[in-house]
Design a protein that fits this description.
The protein is of the alpha/beta class and 338 residues long. It contains seven helices and 19 strands.
């Protein structure tokens, strides 16, 4: 059965099949609504139902809180219609619309035994505009799928962007990228994502990254330093990995810590397997709790990126310490990114 979905204040009406996510229906009919992970994890596609009922689908309770659900909010990437609907939704502005790009691999840096950084020189179009923290979808030849990878370089570098890719043995995307060589061409679309750095406040910022989630956080930090945001805002980066061999960008962040008095870098190993390691040991949320002590974080904001379990645990901790949900932005690295 087909239902009509009216989108206000966009003055648009679309048709949606009964088992079709509303976001998919909108994109299929050329209506570019805001979205991110398309997996019910990031809350970028959150919208309010003004009239009608939906099946909410599967989603993270941190992406759609119970009180938001009671107020009529849904995640459009998961919700399917049960009747005709009227929805208050957010449309991407013209300068925010993702596009398709062709690029060439200009450099490949081995960061660890299983993680590489790829520098992509833009060919057509020759540049890209994005917010610090956004991601791209890479087209995987022969697989008819895309995989999402966060941009790890700052927005000022519009003609060449970096992405960090950890190799997953069964991963279609990571396998393809790790086989690329300098000079190979690549196609991708973007930028996507609502978990990008906001610059319109003087609040202290807490960054939390796990594993390759450091990519978008690095983009935000480099952008913040370029803009001088650290001159008026304290910033702390918690970076959690399993073992010492999984740690990278640490030399860069320690150097930035020396150059910027308002920035603090705290790496942690969940499994301290090297006697040379003298830093923090434990789950990154345990390290965060230790560093915060009894301090309230009510006047802070936070940006998180990494595995879903880490994100969920960090959100719980940050909310317990007083950060309102609307000031916690996160990017979960799900299986769709492998």
């Amino acid at each position: 059965m087909t239902y009509r979905v009216k989108l206000v204040p966009l003055n648009k009406e679309i048709e949606c099949e009964e088992d079709e996510p509303i976001l998919d229906a909108a994109l299929r009919q050329g209506v570019r609504l805001a979205f991110g992970c398309r997996d019910g994890q990031c809350a970028s596609c959150k919208a309010r139902i003004l009239e009608g009922e939906v099946d909410y689908g599967d989603y993270s309770p941190f992406a759609l809180m119970d009180f938001e659900k009671e107020e009529g909010y849904v995640l459009l990437c998961q919700a399917t219609p049960l009747e005709d609907l009227v929805i208050e939704a957010t449309k991407l502005e013209a300068d925010e619309l993702p596009g398709e790009y062709r690029g060439r691999i200009a450099d490949i840096v081995t960061l660890t035994y299983d993680t590489k950084s790829f520098l992509i020189q833009l060919l057509d179009p020759p540049s890209i505009s994005f917010h610090a923290g956004q991601y791209i979808d890479v087209f995987i030849p022969g697989a008819e799928v895309t995989r999402s990878y966060s941009i790890s370089s700052p927005p000022s570098r519009r003609h060449a962007i970096e992405i960090v890719v950890r190799y997953v043995p069964s991963g279609v995307g990571s396998g393809y990228l790790h086989r690329l060589r300098v000079g190979d061409e690549i196609r991708f679309s973007g930028p996507y994502g609502e978990s990008y750095l906001r610059e319109d406040s003087d609040r202290e910022i807490i960054f939390v990254a796990g594993a390759s989630g450091i990519g978008p956080i690095r983009s935000m930090l480099l952008h913040a330093f370029e803009k001088g945001l650290d001159e008026r805002r304290k910033m702390t980066l918690f970076f959690g990995v399993r073992r010492l061999r999984d740690l990278y960008y640490d030399e860069e962040f320690f150097r930035l810590e020396q150059e910027h008095p308002n920035f603090r870098f705290i790496p942690a190993l969940s499994e301290a397997d090297d006697p040379q390691w003298t830093g923090e040991v434990g789950l990154i949320t345990e390290v965060m709790a230790k560093c915060f002590g009894d301090r309230s974080l009510r006047e802070c904001e936070a940006y998180l990126a990494g595995p879903p379990a880490m994100i969920d645990a960090a959100i719980l901790l940050l909310r317990e310490r007083g950060i309102p949900t609307e000031r916690i932005r996160f990017d979960k690295f799900t299986s769709r990114t492998a």
